[in-house]
């Protein structure tokens, strides 16, 4: 009898960026959502009988969303904060052990 294991959360212990696969997947999902909204705007602009101000809003969404979607899909790793690696300041008055000369 097999036991099904629960998936455990993976905790990050570094400030490393996400993998390339995860980044591409995030950008693809974002692009598909924006293009889906664009398709809905196009259908609403053509099919639904609404007053002109609303129709112009739907047409603007259908025209400008592809540009926004492509720009967003080409942003690589922009949502990840930069690494916060801090170099400790060296104590200049002390010579490290591995650098001491013989007899000192």
Q: What does this protein structure show overall?
A:
The chain is built from two helices and no strands. It is mainly alpha-helical and 104 residues long. It is elongated. Pfam families: DUF3099. It comes from Nonomuraea montanisoli. Keywords: Membrane, Transmembrane, Transmembrane helix.
N-to-C SSE string, H for helix and E for strand:
HH
**Which bin fits the share of residues in helices?**
40-55%
Major β-sheet profile: none
In total, the number of strands is 0
Give the DSSP E fraction (strand runs of 2 or more residues). Answer: under 5%
What overall geometry do the principal axes of the alpha carbons give? elongated
Radius of gyration: 27 Å
Low-confidence stretches: none
**End-to-end Cα distance:** 68 Å
The averaged pLDDT comes out at 78
Write the layout of secondary structure elements.
Blueprint: H1 20-47, H2 52-74
Helix pairs in contact: 1-2
Keywords: Membrane, Transmembrane, Transmembrane helix
InterPro entries: DUF3099
Pfam family, one: DUF3099
Descriptive labels:
single chain, 104 residues, mainly alpha, 2 helices
Question: Could you give a short description of this structure?
Answer:
With 104 residues, the protein is an all-alpha fold.
């Amino acid at each position: 009898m097999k036991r099904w294991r629960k998936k455990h959360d993976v905790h990050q212990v570094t400030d490393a960026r996400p993998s390339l696969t995860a980044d591409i997947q995030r950008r693809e999902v974002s692009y598909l959502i924006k293009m889906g909204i664009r398709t809905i705007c196009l259908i609403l602009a053509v099919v639904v009988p609404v007053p002109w101000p609303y129709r112009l809003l739907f047409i603007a969404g259908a025209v400008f969303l592809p540009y926004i979607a492509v720009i967003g899909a080409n942003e690589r790793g922009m949502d990840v904060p930069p690494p916060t690696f801090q170099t400790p300041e060296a104590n200049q008055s002390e010579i490290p052990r591995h650098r001491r000369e013989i007899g000192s």
